[in-house]
Amino acid sequence: MRGGTNRPRTAAVAVLLALAAAAGCGVRPTGVVDGGEPAKGLTKDLRIYYVRGSALQGVTRPDTSIKEPIGALKLLSDMPAWAAERGLVNLVRLGPYWTSGTGHRITLHSPGASFDSPGDRLPNGQLVCTLARAQSFLHRDEAIRPDDVRVSLDDGERTYGPYQCSQFLT
């Protein structure tokens, strides 16, 4: 019978392994190292939404500023040539329009516009995401995130929404 003769040997091996692990791999300890500012998530710049294929794509517009949400819609309609060169398109077609609302809520008013057909999903998404991002940009001091903003679309007869941008980002 062999009994417990392997126990001391097993214990000795365990102690040696623990000592080897504690010794490390030759890397010397250092003091506290400053890693800079933490990541802040999404960019805080203005972003305009266009369509590529069958999905929305946000285009950051650094060094661009607006004073009201309607300014973002003007930027949307004045699509830069470089955006078209990258395969982006603007599907939004509006007649006269204006916006109302503050803070977390905004409504786009465009009498006679089409917001309810299945083919309106991408243009509606462009409008909702662009306006939500514009509202967030304008209220960045209040820490309003784009998905905190609820956007309604009013065609003069009916109001659709409120929508969040995330509903259109698939």
Brief summary of the model shown:
With about 170 residues, the chain is an alpha+beta fold. The chain is built from 4 helices and 6 strands; from the N terminus they run αββααββαββ.
Question: What does this 3D model show about the protein?
Answer:
It is a single chain. This protein has 170 residues and is of the alpha+beta class. It has one domain. 29% of the residues lie in helices and 18% in strands. It is built from 4 helices and 6 strands. A 4-stranded mixed beta sheet has the order 3-4-5-6, covered by helices on one side. A two-stranded antiparallel sheet has the order 1-2. β3 and β4 (105-109) form a beta hairpin. The longest helix has 18 residues, at 6-23. Residues 1-23 form the signal peptide. This is Lipoprotein. It comes from Streptomyces rugosispiralis. Keywords: Signal.
Order of helices and strands: HEEHHEEHEE
**Helix proportion range:** 25-40%
Strand content: 15-25%
Supply Rg: 28 Å
What structural class results from the helix and strand content?
alpha+beta
Order of strands across the main sheet: 3-4-5-6
Which residues sit in consecutive blocks of at least 5 with pLDDT less than 50? 34-41
Q: How many β-strands, per DSSP?
A: 6
Largest sheet, in brief, is: 4 strands, mixed
Intertermini distance? 69 Å
Shape assignment? elongated
Mean pLDDT: 83
Domains, number:
1
Contiguous helical run count: 4
Protein name: Lipoprotein
Keywords: Signal
Signal peptide: 1-23
